[in-house]
Amino acid sequence: MDKDVATDHALGALTARPGGREDVMQQLSAVGSGAGGAGVFSQLFSNPFFTAGFGLAALGAAARYGSLGVRRGSELLRRRMLVDLEITKHDDSYHWILNWMTAQYQRQLLPVGKRRDLGTVQYLLRRLTPGLRHLQINTAKTKTPSGSEQTAFSLVPGHGRHILRYGNAFLLVNRERVGKSFDVNGQPFETISLTTLYYYRHIFEDIFREAHEMALQGTEGKTVIYTTRNMSWEQSGPPKRRRPFDSVVLEEGMSEKILADVQEFLHARTWYLDRGIPYRRGYLLHGPPGTGKTSFVQALAGKLDFNIAMLSLSQRGLTDDLLNHLLLNVPPKTVVLLEDADAAFSNRKQRDSEGYSGANVTYSGLLNALDGVASAEERVIFMTTNHIDRLDDALIRPGRIDMTVYLGNATEGQMAQLWDRFYAQHDVDGRGKQRFLANAQAADLIGNVSTAALQGLFLYNKDDVEGAIRLVSQLGKSPQSTSYQRAATSQ
Fold first, then answer.
1. Where in the numbering of this chain does the BCS1 N-terminal domain appear (predicted)?
2. Which residue segment(s) compose the domain that 181 sits in?
3. Is residue 206 one of the residues assigned to a domain?
């Protein structure tokens, strides 16, 4: 009661003053409007702590969305203006591109004293091209005919980013390792990416064409020998010079017969496919040791411009699945050579009612790899053996082995051809050859000595016609009693 009286007295005093009622109403309305929200915002924005925090938050949001916009814009610009090409280490062109980059860098080096021969634009381009900054060394060892070892060094682009110029286009090259992954050979997994303007996207085809031509030049006139390592084929040493086709002397007409059959098969792909016949061909070369079976395959591959993939069925670790995998992934333009097929099953035992097993590969596994449902096509296989009687008929039937060729000991015609190859320039009238053949006939060597033994005799008596004639009679004796072989060993 007393509080109400006091309040009324206070209000009366305020309203009694001139303009007092209006001031009171303004203050009350100001407080009331603040409670509604407008006054609150004015107070918040007038607070320096609030405005500072709000400003920082606004700047952070602007930076975040601005960077996102720049990134999205750069990605869009990259998609519109740039083109990328990635090459993995598993691809055959990986090493081609590395060698091409090295050659391209060397071509772009400014020749000393050659500035006047270059135009102004070419000179400036060569000066401004950054080139390779990270290099990696590759070491290769080769043996000379004398037996010494030579070491060759080559530089290839290392890991990192490089800039090269191809024509008027600049290329950003990035070689990098992908994580810590390794392939079956223990080599780290790597990639090479090439980036250029979308306008110059056509240069990739030109680059790969040049890189491939460079790779072919390295093996031109040579035969690449592949052997197995882990789960794949790998090149065994440097490529070998092609062996001349006529360097292996077989019985008259035999070499040409096999060559004609292989060439006919290579040109009959459509004929096989139209008739639903698996497009593969198998050959079996059998006969005594030293009659030129493996040498003929090497000479034939050189004649056909093919490579050779050598595989031993008795090698440790070779299983049925691995054998089938290797035959399914034979390198292109490559002849498969299975040497000494009988040796793989010389100690085979009956495993069960379905087949035999050898050291690693089962007999049924070999048959399925040669002519099974999952066996490879577009393949030429040569199989060699010294004992054809040890091979089952199921292995050498048509479809697995399409041509069987016997390479026997040297006939009189083969002896004459070998003589001409070694002594034609020293025995122009042919009298030495007649004496040599007469001595071979007298020693009963016709058909009883291998061509390898004859070649050994001729190599020991290089340019010595009389020595070859005199020692030919000893070819039929045991190696321990052969004088020229004892002399060669002592040397």
1. 54-248
2. 83-106+125-220
3. yes
**pLDDT tens digits along 69-126:** 777 666 666 666 788 888 888 888 888 888 888 887 777 655 545 555 555 655 666 5
**What are the tokens at 378?**
């577009």
Model confidence, pTM: 0.69
Tell which phi-psi region holds residue 261, choosing left (phi > 0), alpha (psi between -120 and 50) or beta. Answer: alpha
| Spatial separation of the C-alpha atoms in residues 34 and 50, rounded to whole Å | 18
Longest alpha-carbon distance in the chain: 162
169: nearest Cα among 206, 135, 133, 132: 206
d(CA 428, CA 415): 17
Least confident of 1-10, 162-171, 216-225: 1-10
d(CA 227, CA 237): 10
Q: Is residue 284 part of a domain?
A: yes
How many residues does this entry show for the chain?
491
pLDDT at 356 over 50: no
Phi, psi of 222 (to 5 degrees): -130, 165
Taking the C-alpha atoms of residue 50 and residue 460, their distance in angstroms, rounded to an integer, is 104
Number of domain units in the chain:
3
* Span 150-202, pLDDT tens digits: 676 667 777 888 888 787 788 888 888 876 666 655 667 888 888 888 888 88
For 172, list phi and psi in degrees, rounded to 5: -95, 115
Give me the residue label for tokens 């199989």. 383
* Helices 38-45 and 48-81, packing angle to 10 deg: 80
Please name the amino acid found at residue 22: E
Is there a domain that residue 489 lies in? no
Asked if the model's pLDDT at residue 12 lies above 60, the reply is no
Per DSSP, helices labelled H in 109-234 are 120-128, 203-219
Beta bridge partners of residue 223, listed in sequence order = 240
